[in-house]
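Q: What residues go here?
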C-alpha cells in the first residue's frame, strides 16, 4: 500500500512539474527571452513597491538613503521616512494646478503605460522621415480628438511643444505683425501676460483686459492677438472671442472631465496640454492645431529654434499614455476622470451652500456630446468670492485659516476673489474640505452666539 501511494505521488509530482515547465517555457515563452530589460523592470517595480503609507512616492530619480536605496517623497502635510506622520496644523495647499488627481488611474493601468527606454532609443535629432514629431503620436492625437469630439483636426496642421506653455509664445510670435497688442479677458491665466512681457519683443506687447481695451479703442487699424481660454482658468467659463480678430484658443481644460463638450472646436489656432488631459504635467507636452500654413510654419520654426523639437523619450511616453486613454473609445479614462471631478464638486458645493460669507462660481448645465447627457461643468478650480465688505483680501483671509489659494489680482481680478485648485492629490483635497467645513461651520457658531 505504501509503495502504491508513493508511486501515485511521484506521478502527480511529475505531472505538476511538466505542466509548470510547459507554462514557463511555452505559455510564457516570450518572458524567458527577455534579457537586458528585466533589470530595468525589476528596478521600476521595486521602487513602485515602496508604499510610503499611500501619502507619498519613491522614484528612481529621487533622493536615496545612505545605503543607496530610494526614499519616499511625501505629499503635502505628511512627513517621516514612510510618510505616515501627518503634521498637525499644516495648511491645506490648494495653490498650484498640479494635476495629481489622476495618479490612481495610472497606477491601476501600470502594465499598459510603463515605458522601457533602451540606452540607444532614438539618439538622432530626427525620426526616420526627417521629422521632429512622431507621425504615430500625431495620428493618435487626431484620433483622441475625434473620439472626445472636442476639436476638428482633419486638414489641420499640428505642432508639438514643451508643454502648451511653450506654444503660448510660439503662437503669439506666429500671429504677430509689428507691433501687435496681446489681450486676454479678466480673470485670465497670468502666464499670457508674464510671458509676453518677459520676451519683451518689438513685435508684441501685452495690453491687458480685452473688454476694457475694446471700450477705449477701435480694432480697425490695430493689430491685436486675443487669448481666449475656454474653459477659462480660473473660473471654468466656456468663452468666445470678443474682438473676433486673430485669436489663440487655449483649450487646456476642454476635456470631458472638466466641461460638457457641446461640439468640436474649429478655431484657427488651438492649444492643448497633456498636463490637464491626463495629469502628466511632468512629461511637459502640449500641441497646437493650426489652420493656416504660414502660421503653422512660423510655430514650427519657433519650436525648431528654441529646442530642435520635442524629446523623443517624451513622445514615446505620451504615445503609451494616450493609447490607454483611447482604449475602449476613451470611456474608461474619461469616466474615471469625470467621476473624480464630479465627486469633488458635489462635496465642495455642499459645503459652500451652507455659507453666506463665501461663494463659488455659478455653474450652468449644458449638453455634453461626449457623455450624451446634460450636465454641469466640473472645473479644475473653484473661484471663491469673499462676500463680506470687510473681507477684501480673500486669499489672506483663507491663509489665516490655513487654506492656501491664489489671489484674484494674479488673474487681473479683485483680491475679493481667490482660486482654489481641485486637481491635486486626494490627501490635499480631503484636507481642503476639512478646513473649509470648519471655516463655514464657524459662521453658524457666531450666529448662535449672537
Ligand atoms: C490655461 C492654461 N494654459 C496653459 C497651461 C500650461 O500647461 P502646460 O503644462 O501644458 O505647459 C496651463 C497650466 O496651468 C493653463 O492653466
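A:
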Amino acid at each position: 500500500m505504501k509503495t502504491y501511494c508513493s508511486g501515485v505521488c511521484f506521478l502527480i509530482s511529475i505531472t505538476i512539474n511538466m505542466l509548470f515547465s510547459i507554462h514557463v517555457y511555452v505559455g510564457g515563452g516570450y518572458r524567458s527571452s527577455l534579457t537586458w530589460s528585466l533589470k530595468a523592470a525589476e528596478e521600476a517595480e521595486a521602487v513602485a513597491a515602496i508604499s510610503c503609507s499611500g501619502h507619498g512616492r519613491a522614484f528612481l530619480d529621487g533622493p536615496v538613503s545612505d545605503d543607496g536605496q530610494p526614499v519616499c517623497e511625501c505629499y503635502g502635510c505628511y512627513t517621516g521616512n514612510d510618510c505616515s506622520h501627518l503634521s498637525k496644523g499644516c495648511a491645506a495647499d490648494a495653490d498650484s494646478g498640479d494635476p495629481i488627481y489622476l495618479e490612481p488611474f495610472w497606477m491601476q493601468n501600470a502594465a499598459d503605460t510603463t515605458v522601457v527606454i533602451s540606452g540607444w532609443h532614438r539618439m538622432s535629432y530626427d525620426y526616420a522621415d526627417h521629422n521632429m514629431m512622431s507621425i504615430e503620436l500625431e495620428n493618435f492625437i487626431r484620433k483622441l480628438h475625434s473620439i472626445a469630439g472636442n476639436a476638428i483636426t482633419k486638414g489641420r496642421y499640428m505642432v508639438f511643444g514643451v508643454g502648451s506653455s511653450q506654444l503660448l509664445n510660439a503662437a503669439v510670435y506666429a500671429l504677430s505683425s509689428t507691433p501687435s497688442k496681446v489681450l486676454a479677458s479678466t480673470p485670465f491665466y497670468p502666464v499670457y501676460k508674464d510671458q509676453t512681457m518677459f520676451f519683451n519683443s518689438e513685435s508684441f506687447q501685452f495690453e491687458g483686459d480685452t473688454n476694457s481695451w475694446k471700450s477705449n479703442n477701435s480694432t480697425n487699424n490695430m493689430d491685436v492677438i486675443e487669448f481666449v481660454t475656454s474653459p477659462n482658468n480660473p473660473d471654468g467659463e466656456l468663452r468666445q472671442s470678443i474682438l473676433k480678430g486673430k485669436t489663440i484658443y487655449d483649450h487646456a481644460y476642454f476635456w470631458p472631465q472638466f466641461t460638457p463638450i457641446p461640439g468640436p472646436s474649429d478655431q484657427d489656432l488651438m492649444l492643448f496640454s497633456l498636463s490637464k488631459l491626463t495629469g502628466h504635467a511632468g512629461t511637459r507636452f502640449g500641441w497646437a492645431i493650426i489652420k493656416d500654413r504660414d502660421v503653422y510654419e512660423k510655430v514650427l520654426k519657433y519650436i525648431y529654434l528654441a529646442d530642435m523639437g520635442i524629446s523623443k523619450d517624451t513622445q514615446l511616453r505620451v504615445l503609451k499614455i494616450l493609447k490607454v486613454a483611447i482604449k475602449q473609445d476613451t470611456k474608461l479614462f474619461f469616466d474615471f476622470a469625470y467621476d473624480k471631478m464630479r465627486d469633488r464638486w458635489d462635496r465642495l458645493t455642499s459645503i459652500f451652500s451652507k455659507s453666506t460669507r463665501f461663494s463659488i462660481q455659478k455653474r450652468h448645465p449644458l449638453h455634453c456630446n461626449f457623455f450624451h447627457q446634460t450636465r454641469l461643468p466640473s472645473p479644475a478650480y473653484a473661484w471663491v468670492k469673499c462676500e463680506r465688505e470687510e473681507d477684501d483680501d480673500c486669499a489672506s483671509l483663507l491663509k489665516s485659516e490655513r487654506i492656501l489659494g491664489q489671489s484674484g489680482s494674479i488673474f487681473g481680478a479683485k483680491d475679493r476673489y481667490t482660486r482654489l485648485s481641485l486637481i491635486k492629490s486626494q490627501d490635499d483635497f480631503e484636507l481642503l474640505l476639512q478646513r473649509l467645513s470648519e471655516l463655514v461651520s464657524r459662521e453658524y457658531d457666531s450666529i448662535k452666539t449672537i
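A: Context that may help when evaluating the design: Residues 97, 163-165, 189, 229, 233, 250, 252, 273, 275, 281, 286 surround pyridoxal-5'-phosphate (CB under 6 Å). The domain at 2-102 is CATH 2.10.25.30 (Laminin).
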